[in-house]
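Researcher: Structure for this, please.
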Amino acid sequence: MARQFEIISKLSGSNGFCCWLFVVALLLQLLFVTTAAVDPLLTLLVLSIPESKLINEAKELYFMIREDKKFPSLSAFNVFLESLNSLRHYKLTLEVFDDVVSWGIRVDRFSYGKAIQSAVKLGDLGKALELLNCMRKDKLSLNEFVYNVVMGGLCKERRVGEARKLFDEMLERRVAPSKVTYNILMDGYCEKGKFEEAFKLRENMKSDNVEPNIVTFNTLLSGLCKLGKMEEPDCVVEGLWICT
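Model: Predicted structure, token format:
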């Protein structure tokens, strides 16, 4: 218990009000016997991470409280994942995510999105694709963010064929691809030397009323350079009917 107060003091820092919130939450936890899975102290803990940035202390306290099979609220849990991810603690993001899921707690699309993003950042596409399949099994709708993250990881490893399958799945599920989506796949095709496929995507952008941007222009121009077709840059500029 003394260790919990010590960590709480560090997390709250000079913010006296925050410290009192922690103390009140801890007293409620100690004085009232409850079987509720959502723990007020743990919820306050995860909400304090963005300001404290004391990840090691937060991790220790998180798992100390978790030993009593207590969990933060889903919204607080998502804040926790977002904070860990933004601070580039990708392994810990996955560790916390897997811990909660292992207890049968149902997470949402946002939770999965942050876990998938962390897996891709770690270069673990196997884990990312596994989580993607879990989302499908849990009947959670995949959004543009999730598709873009996984497609980006696949293209980075030159697995553009698999990325294209996800792109086609997006269209089948009526998830509208953005210019970011198109740029990711175009870059993947250009890296593989499949410039014609990249140019076809540019035409798809036009038919879908998705305006290209400077990234689109640079991607296609870079593809032409790699293929030694520098005599054709005008067609890129002409094809990018709007490039601002």
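Researcher: Any notable elements?
Model: Residues 14-36, 240-244 have pLDDT under 50 and may be disordered. The radius of gyration is 23 Å.
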